[in-house]
Amino acid sequence: MGCQHRVRQSHNGVHVNAVAISALTVTSCLGAGLGETRAALLASRSGLTPCNFETVRLQTYIGQVAGVDAQILPGGLARFECRNNRLAFLGLTQDGFMEAASQAVARYGAHRVGLFLGTSTAGILDAEIAYRNRDPFTGRLPETFKYAESLDFFSVASFVRKLLGLNGPAAVVSTACSSSAKVFGMAKRYINRGLIDAALVGGVDSLCLTTLYGFHSLQLTSALPCRPFDANRDGISIGEAAAFALLELVDEAGAPGSLALLGVGESSDAYHISAPHPEGAGARHAMQAALDDAGLMPAAVDYINLHGTGTPSNDWAESKAVEAVFGSKTPCSSTKGASGHALGAAGALEIAISALAITHGFMPAGLHCSTLDPSCHINYLRANSASAPRVVLSNSLGFGGTNCSVLLGRFA
Amino acid sequence: MTAGVRAIGLLGPGISSWSHGRTVLRGVALYQPQLTLIPASMALPPAERRRAIRAVNLALAVGHEATVGVDVDLTKLPTVFASSGGDCNNCHELLETLATADRQVSPTRFHNSVHNVAAGYWSIATRDTAPYTMVSAYDGSFSAGLVEALSLVASLRHAVMLIAYDMDYPDPLRELRPIPDAFAVALLLQPSLASGSMAQLGFSFGEETAALMHRPELESLRLSAPAARALPLLELIACERAGLVGLEYLDNLSLSVAVTPCN
Prior knowledge:
Order of helices and strands of chain A: EEHEEHHEHHHEHEHEEHEHEHEHHEEE
Shape of chain A: globular
Strand content of chain B: 15-25%
Structural class of chain A: alpha/beta
Largest sheet of chain A: 12 strands, mixed
Number of helices of chain A: 13
Radius of gyration of chain B: 18 Å
Shape of chain B: globular
Strand content of chain A: 15-25%
Structural class of chain B: alpha+beta
Distance between the termini of chain A: 32 Å
Oligomer: heterodimer
Strand order of the largest sheet of chain B: 3-2-4-5-1-6-8-7
Helix content of chain A: 25-40%
Helix content of chain B: 25-40%
Distance between the termini of chain B: 21 Å
Largest interface: A-B, 71 and 66 residues
Number of strands of chain A: 15
Number of strands of chain B: 8
């Protein structure tokens, strides 16, 4: 199994390192699959609802996916039962994605298809419930609780690897809210280095007590549906999502006009464990690195899907970073007012939304922003725009000062 | 896709450093198991040091050892962290709190629960604005981290730090994930042509089984923690031997690492 560096002919002299996005699917509180997601975005419909999740009693809104608990994992994989893997399965069964993955396995061989998934929660909800049901005498967890198949960070990749018969390199990336953006960079690099021919990438994060009570303890959750870039924004609404993409060699799947992963840029703030750099220095470096990777100038970007969590500090710092790289004209919005913040799945969720913007020719509004923060000097879209972006940037910024920007477009 | 090993950091039960571990792996010193001693990181600012959990100190300790006396700009050094479960003591405390009636999670406990907490603190301690990542692949976490680090060295043509670490698990999780003690290894990797490497590494994917340690006490150490799956590789480097070593990675896929000593 060789691993020579591929010297690639560029299709148009620009996209030297681009890889093809040959299949895509997304499931969040906006709906299951690309169609429902697009319909919700076009209708400016938010999926956020008052929190009534499990036994959680907090004044906050959540983006809960419908029908997760009704999912039954296929035979032989029942030991992977947990909310996170049920959500992964629900997501994978949309948009013909499993079939596309199977075709990639048939085309390249199971060892030549990688699997790189982002998650921050894995199946921790099931561990939370197991801890409430410990044996009162021995302290042991109930026998139904399976560690490696739920709480372990790799559980979702282990499940998907077995479900789809993938035998290539695999890893879970867990870097908080940048997790499932970073896997796009990882897979792109492995494809370009010849380690693999294709990769299934994505993110799966599911609602749990840890993140709901945890973000509440940091006073980062809003009691209202989150209001990114609104002058009165006061925190996040936690969501959940499963979003996947199939990345392939350009030679095989990079037909003119087809969807391309143009560039990925990453950086670290090196500033604070749970607060962004106040001037957005890390976010600025990540966006610039993505442009450099794609060989594009800032003016080539038609729309930016912002990280835009709805906390005062995140949105302000991100606006500074966007202004520094792009000026204040490039249309941009955060779609978290619609979807909530899917944390470890936010990157893949918003990359999928960015792809929809390109393939269906629209720019989604940032919901719940009644008064744009006057200190944010950006062209923030408060209503959908019908103009069709050719190149879209998606930002994912996380705890621990981790930043990842992903550029999407079409092959020329 | 090859890289040179510029420096190593090592910490585990009965292994206090790479220079000590090297003598054990060469058979010069006996292996005497004892609890892993994790020093507090002096590299962190005082406020961060107070809040740092053991996994952070563990990762920073081996990373620091692999940079002492090495001419490398830490502020621009991309890093790859690899850990199966991170700090499960912190996770356990969080789960216990969430099982109580009031569920009053400590904010510090929560921010320490992100898997990239050690990576975040490393970037703060070293003012490192280069990207970091945090990979996890159960018992193959070290191999996943090594593949990631070697691919980055090749792509960036720049040095990359790999820090693999795992912590002991508390009850009741230990019964399900029996990692008895902390183990960590750091490899400072650099492009093959750079000077000062102790060994060159190349790799390929295969299906052969992972190499074992010949001495039973070191074999049980290898099996004790995912990061310790690096031991057969470290043994070849310590003994300055050329060879091909299989490392545990994934079901139906192992990692073959070719080691060539530099002299």
